[in-house]
């Protein structure tokens, strides 16, 4: 049986580059890309737009949809790349409960660089003021998790080249 590169979740705080890197990585892998932002219920979008951080209860149904998407596409033989903040280990556990093979790519960087990038972009609902709570909520993936870490000071092309070199090679 052919072993494929697993489903990939590009994770990290808001502004770390999930949409940018996820889209580029998916194109290089010739896979579909889904931005988890598009799966938030309207109530979550409204809450963030009003400057309030989401809590566990707000995120639970969203993570459920994300886990199901990863599992369903993988079982259909078309694993995807998906962008999702996945800030806490319990959130990643919930995703893994649906799709245990999920590989996380953590976009890691400092507050000032991410803050600058957030301030320079337009976002449908996410204000830069929520960066502090995103960083406070982040639980960095442990060495026991299936994860690759990327340094966001590099260009998107450099990041994706390094990720492609580090991905498990498909076997026949
Ligand atoms: N590695 C990078 N180098 C320079 N700019 C980047 C990089 N990654 C993302 N950006 C820019 O930073 C901003 C935030 O990136 P985005 O992909 O929207 O992050 P997220 O989806 O995690 O919120 C965007 O304007 C994007 O173009
Ligand atoms: O769990 C959360 O608090 C949100 O998912 C958050 O982490 C996410 O960042 C927003 O959806 C904004 O979207 P961007 O990550 O694209 O800024």
UniProtKB/TrEMBL annotation:
Q: Which UniProt keywords apply?
A: ATP-binding, Gluconate utilization, Kinase, Nucleotide-binding, Transferase
Q: In the Enzyme Commission scheme, what number(s) does this protein have?
A: 2.7.1.12
TM ranges are none
The record's CDD domains line, in alphabetical order, gives: GntK
Pathway recorded for this protein: Carbohydrate acid metabolism
Please give the Gene3D superfamilies that the UniProt record associates with this protein: P-loop containing nucleotide triphosphate hydrolases
Q: Name one GO biological process term.
A: D-gluconate metabolic process
The family database entries (InterPro entries) matched by this protein are listed as: P-loop_NTPase, Shikimate/glucono_kinase, Therm_gnt_kin
Protein's name in the database = Gluconokinase
Species this protein is from: Glutamicibacter soli
Taxonomy of the source species:
Bacteria, Bacillati, Actinomycetota, Actinomycetes, Micrococcales
């Amino acid at each position: 049986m052919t072993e494929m590169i697993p489903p990939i979740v590009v994770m990290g705080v808001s502004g770390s580059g999930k949409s940018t890197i996820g889209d580029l990585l998916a194109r290089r892998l010739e896979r579909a890309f889904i931005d988890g932002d598009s799966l938030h219920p309207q109530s979550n979008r409204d809450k963030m737009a009003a400057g309030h951080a989401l809590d566990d209860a707000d995120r639970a149904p969203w993570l459920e949809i994300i886990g199901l998407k990863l599992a369903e596409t993988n079982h259909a033989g078309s694993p995807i790349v998906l962008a999702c903040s996945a800030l806490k280990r319990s959130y990643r556990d919930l995703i893994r409960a649906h799709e245990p093979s999920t590989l996380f790519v953590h976009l890691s960087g400092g507050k000032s660089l991410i803050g600058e990038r957030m301030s320079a972009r337009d976002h449908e609902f996410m204000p830069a003021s929520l960066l502090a709570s995103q960083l406070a909520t982040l639980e960095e993936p442990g060495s026991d998790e299936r994860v690759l870490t990327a340094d966001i000071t590099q260009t998107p092309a450099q990041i994706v080249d390094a990720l492609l070199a580090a991905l498990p090679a498909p076997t026949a």
